Input
Amino acid sequence: MTTECKATNKSSFSTSDQELQLETHFVSLAKALAHPARVRILKILSNLEKAGGCLNSDLVSELGLAQSTVSEHLRVLKQAGFITAESIPPKMCYRINRECISSFDQLTRSILM
Output
């Protein structure tokens, strides 16, 4: 079975400055999700949110990673905007940022559709 490629116009590959900015933003967000542990953290937070809570317990045992590694994953997700953190002494309370998830979904659709 062969697949034919249609000739494309070079103009179909041109990109505006706004499109480049969107693509760059998409890449920065995608990088934040580019590790299974970070995806798992988002899944845990989503499940906790459905139960009406937030993450204020230790993720180390859940993920099987060192505390410093878990802290770095949380930092990356927070920096990208996927999660928020609120200090509730003696621990931090992490929550998923639904607005960022929705924005990423819309951004993905606008680039790939």
Remarks:
- The mean pLDDT is 85.
- The beta strands are 83-88, 91-96.
- Helices lie at 17-32, 36-50, 60-63, 67-80, 98-112.
- The two ends are 27 Å apart (CA to CA).
